[in-house]
Amino acid sequence: MPRPGAGAASSVNVVGRIKLVNPPEGDLLRGDDGLFRTRNAQPAIVDETVQVEPGALEGSNVNSVDAMVRMISLARQFELQVRMLQTAEANARAATALLTMNR
Predict the structure, then answer these.
(1) How many CA atoms, within 13 angstroms, populate the side-chain half-sphere of residue 42?
(2) Which of 4, 7, 37, 91 is the most exposed place for a label (fewest CB within 10 A)?
(3) From the CB of residue 67, how many other CB atoms can be counted at a distance below 10 Å?
(4) Whole-number pLDDT of residue 64
(5) Cβ burial, residue 38 (10 Å; 0-12/13-18/19+)
(6) Rounded distance, CA 77 to CA 5, Å?
(7) Is 67 helix (H, G, I), strand (E, B) or coil?
(8) 3-state SS of the chain?
């Protein structure tokens, strides 16, 4: 079912075009928002040799197994440090109790 205002089902409406660029890696900086920008803050030049490959899937930049192992390791380290703080707190309370008994 065609959407209202979208034209006939057989017509093609060009809405925009993806700008295909290929700047040298040394000219790119990663911004705080995760997006890449050129060092001189100028837009990259269109490269006619760059093509979009239809049907291709982009792989993840994170290895999920390594990330999970690291997360578990960090969680265990955190738990150990919390237990150490609790033990130090208990030792301090016991020392305070001993000092108050000696008065």
Answers:
(1) 6
(2) 4
(3) 11
(4) 93
(5) middle
(6) 58
(7) helix
(8) CCCCCCCCCCCCCCCCCCCCECCCHHHEEECCCCCEEECCCCCCCECCCCCCCCCCCCCCCCCHHHHHHHHHHHHHHHHHHHHHHHHHHHHHHHHHHHHHHCC
> What is the value of pTM for the model shown?
0.44
Q: What is the pLDDT of residues 60-81, one digit of tens each?
A: 888 999 999 999 999 999 999 9
Each domain of the chain, given as residue ranges in start order, spans: 17-52, 63-103
Report how far residue 93's alpha carbon sits from residue 45's, in angstroms, rounded to the nearest whole number. Answer: 67
Q: What percent of the chain has pLDDT over 70?
A: 89
Is the CB of residue 62 less than 8 Å from the CB of residue 71?
A: no
Asked whether 21 and 36 are in contact (CB, 8 A), the reply is no
- Give the pair of three-digit tokens for residue 39: 């060092």
Contact 6, 13 (CB under 8 A): yes
Q: Rounded to the nearest 5°, which phi and psi values hold at 69? A: -60, -45
